[in-house]
Specification:
Distance between the termini: 76 Å
Largest sheet: 7 strands, mixed
Number of helices: 13
Oligomer: single chain
Shape: elongated
Helix content: 25-40%
Radius of gyration: 31 Å
Number of strands: 27
Low-confidence stretches: 1-13
Strand content: 15-25%
């Protein structure tokens, strides 16, 4: 059976947001010659995550909607942390998400041109070689309330700066001995404009250029000039780069970039509850063994989401739900889970899987016989057809939590003397409970009503509970991995993020049983396990003799109660802080 039927929405027709309004106005005015050219510029020092997905959908989406181009450009100016393996992983993730770039570029393609721009800035008096150490430069920069102090090398003669810059490139100096800085304004209220560093010495092997270069441009220098070289029209960045726009515009003006010059626009990044997207922190999780790797299904990386069973359409639709805004906010994690459920509900088949099996013996069903029941693959409101055969035999497995020996008042599942409906099957009644020496229930002996085949009784009697089950003889043994949110708190970036890890983010049921209809499905097939949630067979670990399933998402949000408790706690803390503040005010009065 196929687990990926149905297309779902592709999330590519979003409403008009402020970025698209700007692009539409530019096209209407003929700005940039009526062109739209964007770029997605990841640094290849880690894998893409859910936050990148928003930028990808925006960069590629704006270009596609306006008949434009979108380049994939790797910002590879920091050789110590970048790897060719990350490059390939990023390319794979973008294609998996459903996008294709117009041209593949690298900032390292432009190292020679960027060096020439540096020479040009020195020659016109807009840059100088500084010999202060990194610590001294930081000390000279000042604070948000105090202006910076000029370096003693700020007035170094042009010829001397040119000589030093050429010798920096030739490898005559040690790391950190000199840097190239822009000459702007050490008293600027925007600290980025206080003579920012443009080039630094780094003797490190570059994954593309090897040891050809020992000086590397800084991000702010390489980014805007690479945009200009590629003819980018709309350079879309997240809000943390809003102050960098000043150096972006300054550099393009100082190097006399050809018209029309690119323009930078900032939008709010995607901050998702219970999630961190800092590459440094994600790397820490991997290196310290808190997760199994970058593609651990608990990770917010695209490879982790893919292994968890999330579809590209669900991620694109989620990005469309979030929208493009000018102000940062934290997105409810339930919104992502809704997008996942909404997508999978219409495309994946239903099967039954018992995670913690409890044996049931149907004492009045003949030994050695099998009754093959017909069950639908998809719910009635899904325009997909198909059924699967479900074997009913004398010995079955049900979920252990679907039986209670002494049930509370509103427990409607199986209990001694009580009748329940087996999904697609019969009514069964518990007649006897078998326990082991420790007093644990190990087997239920039940009877079934042959007249209730299909789940209804001719005499009109009703049962309140319906449970899922599998045939003990025919079911396939499997391992079920229940993945949940990696962090317990809504904002794990506050404080020690490792202290906020969710100890129950992975629960493994190694002795589960799944119905036999999935036997010939390839790894990577998605399902809804009825009454449980959505799952995917793990492409790396699942084998014909040992099936492994990863939970993608539950059928409902199990964190609603937890979130309400957290919000109430936060409200109480805020109220307490307010009372203390009022008391301090009264004392001062």
């Amino acid at each position: 059976m196929s687990g990926d039927k149905g297309g779902g929405s592709d999330g590519r027709t979003p409403g008009r947001d402020f970025v698209r309004e700007i692009v539409a106005a530019d096209l209407a005015s003929g700005k940039h010659g009526g062109r739209v050219a964007t770029r997605f510029p990841p640094e290849p020092n880690g894998l893409l995550h859910i936050g990148h997905a928003k930028a990808i959908c925006l960069d590629f989406g704006v270009a596609a909607e306006n008949g434009g181009t979108c380049n994939l450009r790797f910002d590879d100016t920091n050789p110590e942390t970048e790897e060719a393996g990350y490059v390939e992983a990023i390319k794979r993730d973008i294609r998996w998400l459903g996008f294709e770039w117009s041209e593949l570029r690298h900032a390292s393609d432009y190292f020679e041109q960027l060096y020439d721009y540096g020479v040009h800035l020195i020659e016109k008096g807009s840059a100088y070689v500084d010999s202060l150490s990194e610590e001294e430069i930081r000390a000279h920069r000042g604070t948000v309330t105090e202006p910076g102090r000029p370096s003693p090398w700020r007035d170094r003669p042009l010829e001397e700066s040119l000589d030093f810059f050429r010798r920096m490139r030739a490898g005559e100096f040690e790391d950190g001995a000199h840097v190239l800085r822009a000459r702007i304004d050490m008293a600027s209220p925007n600290m980025i404009m206080r003579d920012p560093v443009l080039f630094r010495i780094r003797r490190a092997h570059h994954y593309r250029t090897g040891s050809e270069w020992c000086i590397y441009p800084m991000y702010d220098f390489a980014h805007c000039l690479s945009d200009s070289i590629e003819g980018i029209t709309h350079s879309l960045c997240t809000l943390e780069f809003v102050n960098n726009r000043a150096i972006y515009d300054w550099l393009l003006e100082e190097v006399e970039a050809p018209e029309p010059v690119p323009r930078q626009y900032e939008f709010a990044r995607l901050n998702l509850e219970y999630t961190i997207v800092s590459k440094r922190k994600l790397l820490r999780l991997v290196q310290d063994g808190h997760v199994s790797g970058w593609d651990d299904p608990r990770m917010p990386t695209l490879s982790g989401l893919r292994r968890r069973g999330v579809t590209p359409a669900a991620i694109r639709n989620f990005c469309g739900l979030v929208g493009v805004a000018k102000a940062d906010n934290r997105v409810d994690a339930a919104k992502l889970e809704y997008a996942i459920r909404d997508d999978l509900n219409m495309r994946v088949p239903r099967v039954m899987c018992v995670q913690r099996p409890l044996r049931v013996v149907i004492t009045n069903f003949p030994e050695g016989e099998t009754d093959w029941l017909d069950a639908p693959l998809y719910p009635h409101d899904v325009p997909l057809e198909g059924t699967r055969p479900v074997p009913f035999t004398r010995e079955l497995y049900i979920e252990r939590h679907d039986f209670m020996e002494d049930p509370p008042r509103r427990f409607f599942r199986l209990a001694p003397g009580r009748e329940v409906r087996l999904r697609y099957g019969y009514f069964i009644r518990c007649e006897e409970v078998v326990k082991d020496e420790a007093g644990e229930v190990v087997e239920l002996r039940c009877t079934y009503d042959p007249a209730t085949r299909g789940g209804s009784a001719p005499d009109g009697r009703k049962v309140r509970g319906t449970i899922h089950w599998v045939s003990a003889e025919h079911a396939r043994p499997c391992e079920v991995r229940l993945y949940d949110r990696l962090f317990r708190t809504r904002d794990p970036d506050r404080g020690d993020f490792l202290a906020q890890l969710n100890p129950d983010s992975l629960v493994v049921h190694a002795d589960a049983r799944v119905e036999p209809s999935i036997a010939d499905d390839p790894p990577g097939t998605r399902y809804q396990f009825e009454r449980v949630g959505y799952f995917i067979s793990d492409e790396e670990d699942s084998r014909p003799d040992r099936l492994v399933f990863n939970r993608t998402v539950g059928l409902r949000d199990s964190w609603v109660k937890i979130r309400k408790q957290q919000m109430a706690q936060e409200a109480r803390k805020a109220k307490g802080r307010g009372r203390k503040k009022r008391k301090r005010g009264k004392k001062r009065g």
